[in-house]
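Following the same procedure, the fold was encoded as C-alpha coordinates, giving this record:
***
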Amino acid sequence: MAKEIKFIREGIRSVFIEEYLKNQFQRADYSHIEVSKTPLGTRILIFANRPGIVIGRGGEKIKAITEYLRDHFKLDNPQLDVKEVDNPDTDAQIIARQIASSLERGLNYKRVANMTIKRVMDSGAVGIQIRVSGKMSGEKSRTDKFMQGYLQHSGDTADKLVSKGKAEALLKPGKVGIQVKIMTVNIEQEMKQAKETEEKKAE
Protein backbone atom coordinates (compact mmCIF):
# COMPACT_ATOMS: atom_id res chain seq x y z
CA MET A 1 0.00 0.00 0.00
CA ALA A 2 2.87 2.36 0.85
CA LYS A 3 4.33 1.92 -2.65
CA GLU A 4 0.93 2.60 -4.24
CA ILE A 5 0.50 5.81 -2.22
CA LYS A 6 3.99 6.94 -3.20
CA PHE A 7 3.25 6.20 -6.86
CA ILE A 8 0.02 8.23 -6.71
CA ARG A 9 1.77 11.15 -5.01
CA GLU A 10 4.51 11.13 -7.65
CA GLY A 11 1.87 11.16 -10.39
CA ILE A 12 0.02 14.09 -8.82
CA ARG A 13 3.26 16.00 -8.38
CA SER A 14 4.16 15.43 -12.04
CA VAL A 15 0.78 16.88 -13.09
CA PHE A 16 1.37 20.03 -11.02
CA ILE A 17 4.91 20.36 -12.37
CA GLU A 18 3.67 20.08 -15.95
CA GLU A 19 0.96 22.69 -15.33
CA TYR A 20 3.52 25.06 -13.84
CA LEU A 21 5.97 24.64 -16.72
CA LYS A 22 3.19 25.00 -19.32
CA ASN A 23 2.27 28.37 -17.82
CA GLN A 24 5.90 29.46 -17.66
CA PHE A 25 6.76 28.58 -21.25
CA GLN A 26 3.69 29.48 -23.31
CA ARG A 27 5.78 31.85 -25.45
CA ALA A 28 8.17 29.00 -26.15
CA ASP A 29 5.38 26.88 -27.70
CA TYR A 30 5.59 24.40 -24.83
CA SER A 31 4.56 20.82 -25.69
CA HIS A 32 5.08 18.44 -22.74
CA ILE A 33 7.60 17.02 -20.30
CA GLU A 34 9.11 13.63 -19.53
CA VAL A 35 10.09 13.01 -15.91
CA SER A 36 12.50 10.23 -14.94
CA LYS A 37 14.57 9.26 -11.91
CA THR A 38 18.34 8.97 -12.31
CA PRO A 39 21.16 8.13 -9.87
CA LEU A 40 21.92 11.87 -9.79
CA GLY A 41 18.36 13.08 -9.08
CA THR A 42 15.23 13.89 -11.07
CA ARG A 43 15.59 14.50 -14.80
CA ILE A 44 12.93 16.65 -16.50
CA LEU A 45 13.04 16.82 -20.29
CA ILE A 46 11.09 19.79 -21.63
CA PHE A 47 9.80 19.63 -25.20
CA ALA A 48 9.21 23.00 -26.84
CA ASN A 49 9.17 24.52 -30.31
CA ARG A 50 11.38 27.45 -29.24
CA PRO A 51 13.93 26.02 -26.78
CA GLY A 52 15.91 29.26 -26.65
CA ILE A 53 13.10 30.95 -24.73
CA VAL A 54 13.05 28.09 -22.23
CA ILE A 55 16.77 28.37 -21.59
CA GLY A 56 16.88 32.16 -21.45
CA ARG A 57 19.86 34.44 -21.90
CA GLY A 58 22.94 32.76 -20.49
CA GLY A 59 20.76 29.98 -19.10
CA GLU A 60 19.26 32.31 -16.48
CA LYS A 61 15.66 31.21 -17.06
CA ILE A 62 16.37 27.51 -16.79
CA LYS A 63 18.43 28.06 -13.61
CA ALA A 64 15.61 30.00 -11.95
CA ILE A 65 13.05 27.34 -12.89
CA THR A 66 15.35 24.58 -11.58
CA GLU A 67 15.66 26.32 -8.22
CA TYR A 68 11.90 26.82 -8.00
CA LEU A 69 11.20 23.15 -8.76
CA ARG A 70 13.69 22.05 -6.12
CA ASP A 71 12.34 24.36 -3.42
CA HIS A 72 8.60 24.36 -4.18
CA PHE A 73 8.07 20.77 -5.33
CA LYS A 74 10.82 19.27 -3.13
CA LEU A 75 12.50 17.54 -6.05
CA ASP A 76 15.75 15.74 -5.41
CA ASN A 77 18.43 17.55 -7.45
CA PRO A 78 16.23 18.46 -10.48
CA GLN A 79 18.07 18.45 -13.80
CA LEU A 80 16.30 20.24 -16.65
CA ASP A 81 17.04 19.53 -20.30
CA VAL A 82 15.30 21.05 -23.30
CA LYS A 83 14.53 19.39 -26.63
CA GLU A 84 13.08 20.97 -29.73
CA VAL A 85 9.85 19.40 -30.99
CA ASP A 86 10.48 17.51 -34.24
CA ASN A 87 7.27 18.57 -35.99
CA PRO A 88 5.39 21.36 -34.17
CA ASP A 89 2.61 21.31 -36.77
CA THR A 90 1.49 17.87 -35.54
CA ASP A 91 1.91 18.56 -31.81
CA ALA A 92 -1.57 19.04 -30.31
CA GLN A 93 -0.49 21.15 -27.32
CA ILE A 94 1.48 23.58 -29.49
CA ILE A 95 -1.40 23.81 -31.98
CA ALA A 96 -3.93 24.46 -29.18
CA ARG A 97 -1.82 27.29 -27.77
CA GLN A 98 -1.34 28.81 -31.24
CA ILE A 99 -5.10 28.76 -31.85
CA ALA A 100 -5.70 30.46 -28.49
CA SER A 101 -3.13 33.13 -29.36
CA SER A 102 -4.82 33.75 -32.73
CA LEU A 103 -8.22 34.15 -31.08
CA GLU A 104 -6.78 36.60 -28.55
CA ARG A 105 -5.49 38.67 -31.48
CA GLY A 106 -9.07 38.97 -32.74
CA LEU A 107 -9.06 36.46 -35.60
CA ASN A 108 -12.28 34.60 -36.46
CA TYR A 109 -12.28 31.18 -34.77
CA LYS A 110 -13.78 29.35 -37.77
CA ARG A 111 -11.16 30.75 -40.11
CA VAL A 112 -8.39 29.92 -37.64
CA ALA A 113 -9.66 26.35 -37.17
CA ASN A 114 -9.96 25.65 -40.90
CA MET A 115 -6.53 27.12 -41.68
CA THR A 116 -5.00 25.11 -38.83
CA ILE A 117 -6.56 21.88 -40.06
CA LYS A 118 -5.12 22.39 -43.52
CA ARG A 119 -1.65 23.11 -42.10
CA VAL A 120 -1.72 20.09 -39.81
CA MET A 121 -2.95 17.69 -42.50
CA ASP A 122 -0.38 19.06 -44.97
CA SER A 123 2.28 18.27 -42.33
CA GLY A 124 1.50 14.57 -42.43
CA ALA A 125 -1.30 14.07 -39.91
CA VAL A 126 -3.78 11.24 -40.45
CA GLY A 127 -6.58 13.08 -38.68
CA ILE A 128 -7.34 16.08 -36.49
CA GLN A 129 -10.17 17.37 -34.32
CA ILE A 130 -10.43 20.91 -32.96
CA ARG A 131 -13.05 21.77 -30.36
CA VAL A 132 -13.72 25.40 -29.45
CA SER A 133 -16.04 26.16 -26.49
CA GLY A 134 -17.11 29.43 -24.92
CA LYS A 135 -18.38 32.88 -25.80
CA MET A 136 -16.87 33.63 -29.17
CA SER A 137 -19.40 36.35 -29.93
CA GLY A 138 -22.76 37.41 -28.56
CA GLU A 139 -24.23 36.37 -25.24
CA LYS A 140 -24.55 32.59 -25.52
CA SER A 141 -21.74 30.09 -25.13
CA ARG A 142 -21.36 27.54 -27.87
CA THR A 143 -19.23 24.56 -28.82
CA ASP A 144 -18.01 23.96 -32.36
CA LYS A 145 -16.06 20.97 -33.64
CA PHE A 146 -13.86 20.92 -36.72
CA MET A 147 -12.62 17.57 -38.01
CA GLN A 148 -10.77 16.04 -40.92
CA GLY A 149 -9.27 12.64 -41.59
CA TYR A 150 -9.26 9.59 -39.32
CA LEU A 151 -8.99 9.83 -35.54
CA GLN A 152 -9.15 7.09 -32.90
CA HIS A 153 -11.25 8.35 -29.98
CA SER A 154 -10.93 5.61 -27.36
CA GLY A 155 -8.96 2.58 -26.27
CA ASP A 156 -5.27 1.84 -26.06
CA THR A 157 -4.65 3.14 -29.58
CA ALA A 158 -6.07 6.56 -28.71
CA ASP A 159 -3.96 6.74 -25.55
CA LYS A 160 -0.72 5.92 -27.34
CA LEU A 161 -1.10 7.36 -30.84
CA VAL A 162 -3.26 10.47 -30.44
CA SER A 163 -1.58 13.70 -29.40
CA LYS A 164 -3.85 15.79 -27.15
CA GLY A 165 -3.64 19.46 -26.20
CA LYS A 166 -5.64 22.07 -24.31
CA ALA A 167 -5.43 25.85 -24.08
CA GLU A 168 -7.53 28.82 -23.06
CA ALA A 169 -8.06 32.14 -24.81
CA LEU A 170 -9.14 35.21 -22.85
CA LEU A 171 -11.55 37.20 -25.02
CA LYS A 172 -13.74 40.19 -24.18
CA PRO A 173 -16.97 38.10 -24.00
CA GLY A 174 -15.24 35.58 -21.70
CA LYS A 175 -12.93 32.59 -21.57
CA VAL A 176 -12.74 30.20 -24.54
CA GLY A 177 -11.44 26.65 -24.25
CA ILE A 178 -9.59 24.93 -27.08
CA GLN A 179 -9.08 21.18 -27.31
CA VAL A 180 -7.00 19.59 -30.05
CA LYS A 181 -6.46 15.93 -30.97
CA ILE A 182 -4.04 14.89 -33.70
CA MET A 183 -3.23 11.43 -35.02
CA THR A 184 -0.14 10.94 -37.16
CA VAL A 185 0.04 7.14 -37.46
CA ASN A 186 -2.02 5.32 -40.07
CA ILE A 187 -3.01 2.15 -38.20
CA GLU A 188 -4.24 0.26 -41.26
CA GLN A 189 -1.03 0.99 -43.13
CA GLU A 190 1.08 -0.03 -40.12
CA MET A 191 -0.83 -3.32 -39.80
CA LYS A 192 -0.49 -4.00 -43.52
CA GLN A 193 3.26 -3.42 -43.41
CA ALA A 194 3.58 -5.64 -40.33
CA LYS A 195 1.64 -8.41 -42.07
CA GLU A 196 3.80 -8.14 -45.19
CA THR A 197 6.93 -8.31 -43.04
CA GLU A 198 5.67 -11.45 -41.29
CA GLU A 199 4.79 -13.08 -44.62
CA LYS A 200 8.29 -12.38 -45.99
CA LYS A 201 9.84 -13.94 -42.88
CA ALA A 202 7.69 -17.03 -43.33
CA GLU A 203 8.79 -17.53 -46.96
About this structure: The longest helix spans residues 2-24.
